[in-house]
Amino acid sequence: MYLKYGTAAIIKMGPFVDETDGVTPETGLSIAQGDIQISKNGAAFAQTSDTGPTTTHDADGWYPVPLTTGDTDTLGSLTVQVAMSGALPVWRDRQVVPANVYDSLFSTSDYLQVDAMQVEGGDATDAINAACDTALSDYDAPTKAELDSGLAALNDLSSTESQDAAAAALTAYDPPTKGELDSGLAALNDLSSTEAQDSAAAALTAYDPPTDAEMDAGFAGLNDLSSTEAQDSAAAALTAYGVTTTGDLAGITASLSSTDIDDIADAVWDEAQSGHTTTGTFGKYLDSSISGVGGAIGSGADACTITITVESVALADADVWISTDSGGGNVVAGTLQTDDNGQATFMLDEGNTYYLWMQKAGYNSIQGEEFTAVAD
Fold first, then answer.
1. Long-range contacts at 166-169 (CB < 8 A, ≥ 24 apart)
2. How far is CA 164 from the centre of its chain?
3. Which of 37, 93, 117, 352 could potentially form a cystine with 45 if both were Cys, beta carbons 3.0 to 4.6 Å apart?
4. What's the rounded Cα separation, in Å, for the pair 236 and 52?
5. Which domains does the chain carry?
6. Distance (Å, whole) CA 40 – CA 184
7. Mind listing the pLDDT tens digit for each residue in 331-365?
8. Distance between CA atoms of residues 322 and 308, nearest Å
9. CA distance 376 to 374
10. How far apart are CA 341 and CA 111, in angstroms?
């Protein structure tokens, strides 16, 4: 581990363990200035220069030990030892290095110094200069004449030789004559105008387009039913469907005896009051109207159905009444009881503001809840 020259640092010392069993961590030591002994680069041990070091126990017998700038003011090895009563001694060896070495290794603020001081045992600058002088002295640069000769050798053909080579290439090339070109282009179309016309005429002759009569016959065949046939087909379809005619209905009615008719009437009027629950039906309207005889349903112009639910479940047999004031002093409709669907119908005036009241044993009551009347 490295330490930066002349720089304060904190190192971990431990683990301090019991001097008897050598295992149990010592966690309550009070390490003072005189307990921290430092040897700089092999010199005799001496206490740290920190007169009040902070050495509070960290964990498992390990303690922080501070080093001052005076403790790290010598390059080379640094040995730190702490010997405490009741615990085995602990020591650490460190290396104090120059600041640029430390920063080059552990930060990006500096670099290792790599200046060339010696080459082959002598002064580096002198050695480099001498080597350069020797290299320049040994280098035999070409003269102008040598360069001219070398460049001239790049083209060793005379003008006559160049002309002869070009002439030979042209002679070897056999370009097509005008007659050959004309013959080749003419072969691209070997049909005469007469032959082209004859081919078109033959194609038109082979095509047999439909006549006007044939087209009329084809379109007419799309619908080959006369009006009489169409009517007969429709009549047959209706007959097969078996729709109930007025005569059939009259026959059914005629077949009912007076007893049957009485039974039907009884079935309608014997329907339980609780069965008339569908808003908008005559049975529901009649039930609400009769139930409100004596002013209970109100005197408004519109039938308005109130629905009472508790946690989305209809509340039946609840007492419900309506007032025009929030204090409940002016009751204009009720009291009615809700049906199995939690509903009660009042005669109110649509669009007017009213206040709803409800009570039933075992349930929270409604005390003057404002609402606007909406007709069914």
1. none
2. 77
3. 37
4. 121
5. 2-106 (2.60.40), 273-372 (2.60.40)
6. 105
7. 999 899 999 999 999 999 999 999 999 999 999 99
8. 13
9. 7
10. 90
